[in-house]
């Protein structure tokens, strides 16, 4: 992480914890919204992501669904978190930064604020003209793409329709601590008690989602919304990485028939399938030295739904 604009060499991917060993996630610092869509697009918008990252993948899926691929440039970091954090490079599917001399994500933070203190996380929405971060919080970037850039894309898809907003917010809250962040709370717990707490709320919520999807096609209402994106990115990583590395092994997602059917429904939509890179997910999670010192990447699992993904990923 960065402290007053300097990269700390003793860097720990396991974030803060409380006195009981519970994982605490840092809040994002850059939270600007876009008020003038046309001039923002004219100035140039770029999205920095890593395909391993569920939060970044939220924004990737929204970018594809809303027809923003031609409008928002994409740059991709390598999946492994090294001693210098996220790096641009040559892993298949990764890219260069697009900025002379920038090889690591943390440099984007210090270009924006040379005194920045905090973690250098992805996703990052970047202002290409002024060379600075607009926003580094995926929940905000979902709103920026869907609502703030609506004058540009005019998409038929509305991921946050007025009449469902309260239900979407409630659903999102109901899966954030237990599921989206719940897997990290289990994986990065540093006490048995903290792990147990995380596992109980994770699997209680998954059991209730299983019931929900027995009679509902979508997370909220009868249409695709941002809640589906938020749930999807955790579900696709679950059996591939969390089940082993984060010890979320009470059950796998493939043992929840209704959730699995829901996952397959979403994977039939191109924007969901094309932004799911199993190679990045496996290489990335299993590179977390604090949890997997040997950094060995497992062979399996071979899952039924991989057939929906583009070949070679
Ligand atoms: N609240 C942020 C979280 C982003 C986040 O934690 N990203 C992780 C990757 S999945 C990251 O960049 N971690 C690097 C670090 O913590 O130093 C969001 O939703 O955008």
TrEMBL record:
| Gene3D superfamilies, per the entry | 1.20.1050.10, Glutaredoxin
Task: Name a Pfam family for this protein.
Answer: GST_C_2
PROSITE patterns found in the cross-reference section: GST_CTER
Q: Which SUPFAM superfamilies match?
A: GST C-terminal domain-like, Thioredoxin-like
Please name the InterPro entries in this protein's record: Glutathione-S-Trfase_C-like (IPR010987), Glutathione-S-Trfase_C_sf (IPR036282), Glutathione_S-Trfase (IPR040079), Glutathione_S-Trfase_N (IPR004045), GST_Omega-like_C (IPR047047), GST_Omega/GSH (IPR016639), Thioredoxin-like_sf (IPR036249)
Give every GST C-terminal domain span.
161-285
Which PANTHER family does the UniProt entry name for this protein? GLUTATHIONE S-TRANSFERASE OMEGA-LIKE 1-RELATED (PTHR32419:SF6), GLUTATHIONYL-HYDROQUINONE REDUCTASE (PTHR32419)
Q: By what name is this protein known?
A: Glutathione S-transferase C-terminal domain-containing protein
- Originating species: Glaciecola petra
């Amino acid at each position: 992480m960065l402290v007053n604009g300097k990269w700390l060499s003793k860097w720990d991917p396991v974030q803060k914890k409380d006195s009981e060993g519970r994982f605490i996630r840092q809040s994002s610092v850059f939270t600007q919204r876009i008020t003038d869509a046309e001039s923002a697009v004219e100035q140039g918008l770029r999205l920095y992501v890593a395909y391993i990252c569920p939060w970044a993948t939220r924004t990737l899926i929204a970018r594809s669904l809303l027809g923003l691929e031609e409008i928002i440039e994409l740059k991709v970091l390598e999946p492994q978190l090294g001693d210098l954090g996220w790096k641009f490079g040559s892993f298949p599917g990764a890219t260069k930064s697009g900025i002379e001399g920038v090889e690591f994500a943390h440099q984007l933070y210090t270009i924006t604020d040379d005194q920045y203190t905090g973690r250098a996380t992805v996703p990052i929405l970047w202002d290409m003209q002024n060379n600075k971060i607009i926003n580094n919080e995926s929940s905000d970037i979902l709103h920026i793409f869907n609502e703030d850039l609506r004058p540009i894309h005019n998409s038929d898809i509305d991921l946050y329709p007025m009449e469902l907003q309260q239900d979407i917010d409630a659903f999102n809250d109901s899966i954030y601590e237990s599921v989206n962040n719940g897997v990290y709370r289990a994986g990065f717990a540093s006490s048995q008690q903290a792990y147990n707490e995380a596992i109980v709320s994770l699997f209680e919520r998954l059991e209730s989602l299983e019931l929900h999807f027995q009679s509902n096609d979508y997370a909220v209402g009868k249409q695709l919304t941002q809640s589906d994106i938020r749930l999807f990115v955790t579900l696709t990583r679950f059996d591939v990485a969390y089940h082993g590395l984060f010890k979320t092994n009470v059950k796998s997602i493939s043992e929840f028939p209704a959730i699995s059917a829901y996952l397959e429904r979403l994977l039939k939509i191109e924007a969901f399938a094309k932004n799911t890179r199993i190679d990045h997910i496996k290489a990335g999670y299993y590179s977390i030295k604090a949890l997997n010192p040997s950094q060995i990447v497992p062979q399996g699992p071979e899952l039924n739904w991989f057939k929906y993904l583009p070949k070679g990923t």
